[in-house]
Amino acid sequence: MRSSNPVFSRRGFSRDNGGYAGFDAQQAGTATNPYATNPYATDPQTGMPQAANRNVMTIDDVVSRTAMTLGTVVLTAVLAWIALPVDPANVNKSYGIAIGAALIAFVLAMVQSFKRKPVPALILAYAAFEGVFLGVISSATSTYISPGVVIQAVLGTMCVFAGVLFAYKMRWIRVTRRFYGFVMAAAMGFMLLMVVNLLFSVFGGGDGLGFRSGGLGILFGVIGIILGACFLALDFKQVEDGVQYGAPREESWLAAFGLTMTLVWIYLEMLRLLSILKGD
């Protein structure tokens, strides 16, 4: 099962001979385990590990690595909020640093995405620079639009995460080939429209095609959050497959990286939506 998340798209936990296990299992009723020779993979009959090994990925590993990565994002965001003021005298300088941090975070994310193995230092560096960007953007939004919008965006992101996790565990969300195809098509269409809107805003001024304000802005904000929720479901599937198939423990860093990227996406979309609703 290939996730829409660029990290998992490059190196999925359940990859098998160029494909991904999970679709075939659901279609044909038989599971294809890419770690079939791994004696520590979960037994499909009992659901228990076939042998004990501290070098295979567990849910606890994913939780701890995700906490470290998200903790780095939050810490640097708070530091950026304090150290990079967005008052009229310093706002241009702070924005410049934030944009530079965002570009560095993007480059680090792409480098990690194309590596065959996770590099924890690279992942944490990405989280640090991403946090700087989020801290400045959040501070500016809170200062010039609504003092309470950041807290609401954080709570909204947490609710989306908890809701998708609950729905996934209850099997209300079933990650199938059709689900994956729909999400990917919708994501590509969404990103294409955002790029076109950006180009129109750069060369034509204003808000481009209006996808970032007014009624259209609200609609596309809701679509962005829904897409983020779908990304989470795909990521949960990748983590579940990794644990079930006895993936190496280092793969938990990829899980943390991918989940962090998805949560950042949801937070930014939530922040933008609330800003439109509260803005003048």
Helix content: 55-70%
Number of strands: 2
- Give the DSSP E fraction (strand runs of 2 or more residues): under 5%
Give the helix tally: 9
What would you say this structure looks like, in words?
With 280 residues, the chain is mostly helical. Helix content is 69%, strand content 1%. It has helices at residues 6-10, 23-28, 59-83, 91-113, 120-144, 149-169, 177-204, 214-244, 251-278; strands at 15-16, 19-20. Strands 1-2 form a two-stranded antiparallel ribbon. A hairpin with a 2-residue loop joins strand 1 and strand 2 (19-20). Helix 5 runs parallel beside helix 9 and helix 6 crosses helix 8. The chain is globular and about 55 Å long. The N and C termini lie far apart (44 Å).
Quick recap:
This protein has 280 residues and is an all-alpha fold. Helix content is 69%, strand content 1%. The chain has helices at 6-10, 23-28, 59-83, 91-113, 120-144, 149-169, 177-204, 214-244, 251-278, and strands spanning 15-16, 19-20.
Task: Tag the structure with descriptive keywords.
two-stranded antiparallel sheet, 2 strands, mainly alpha, 1% strand, 280 residues
